[in-house]
């Protein structure tokens, strides 16, 4: 059976065979689009019960936009705004963040140009080897999820050990290296604001290595022939401490707030910031790791670049609820864990389903 499938349920549907055919093509979702398909392959179609439950109109709640222009002076207003957003929605957008517009534009262009390289060139980076610092692929959880997502990704581990520029293709090398440096500076600023929002000294979160490592993921969402049947990215929360997202003008990102999906509209020159699972864990639920997803679209390609602040290499540092935040009235909710153990559980579980945080709750 062809991986292109028919978009309809077939009695002869062999899921594993289609998954392997798709994976071994090393062409990703873009390869399917380039082949001229007009109907969605069966492996991408969401279960009927999930489709039936997903017919609500997105809420008109407005995502907070925080201006970082005033952080060098009296930053109390900025800290208060960050605290409010991080404790309630778990996501906000930042403007006047210090990353030049030219860098943002060049990074989006570089991400798109990598994914639009000839297949024989791009395919050399295609791998599911977890030890590779630079890898291109489609659906890290392809063989574990109920349905595949309409998305390809270039994954780059940028720190704490510096990535050698030669590991990146020339078409995206300079832009990703520059963006990585700029986003690391912004990450340091945001961790300082979040530390203060928790009532801690500004250096606290950095002192426990929250900003020590980061990875950059360049996502590519081709135009989808039947976007109503699939998702660009399944509902999930991010496993690390913090995520900074650069998205293009097309949109499609949604966050779950009070059981309703909220659109996160593209704002010119803004970056999206969301709290990750590990920051919710160490803040003992004070800060909220937000569940989010990306809808598929007839328009495209949509390009986004996510920076995950986490450590992908083994670390012996143990994380648990921050002792300074605990009291008799606020006992620890989570057990201590190695970051690598949390990441391993998250990635083995795959996207969708219950939050990985549930697995690390203390039994009461």
* Order of secondary-structure elements: HHHEHEHHEEHHEEEEEEHEEEEH
Helical residues, percent: 25-40%
Rg over alpha carbons = 20 Å
Taking the sheet with the most strands, its summary is:
8 strands, mixed
The termini sit apart by 50 Å
Average pLDDT taken over every residue: 90
- The low-pLDDT segments are 1-12
What is the tally of helical segments? 10
Classification by helices and strands: alpha+beta
Strand element count: 14
Shape: globular
Order of the strands making up the biggest sheet: 1-2-10-7-12-5-4-3
The portion of residues forming beta strands comes to: 15-25%
Spell out the key features of this protein.
364 residues, alpha+beta, 29% helix, globular, disordered N terminus
Describe the 3D structure:
With 364 residues, the chain is α+β, with helices and mostly antiparallel strands. The protein has helices at residues 15-25, 28-34, 48-52, 76-88, 101-115, 119-122, 170-197, 204-207, 277-282, 339-349, and strands at residues 65-67, 91-95, 134-137, 152-159, 214-221, 231-236, 242-247, 253-257, 260-263, 271-275, 292-295, 302-309, 318-319, 337-338. The strands form 3 sheets. It has an 8-stranded mixed β-sheet. A 4-stranded antiparallel β-sheet has the order 6-11-8-9, with no helix packed on it. Helix 4 links the parallel strand 1 and strand 2 (91-95). Helix 4 (76-88) packs across helix 7 and helix 5 (101-115) crosses helix 7 (170-197). The longest helix is centred in the middle third of the chain and has 28 residues, at 170-197. It is globular and about 60 Å long. It starts with 14 loop residues before the first helix and ends in a 15-residue tail after the last helix. Residues 1-12 have low confidence and may be disordered.
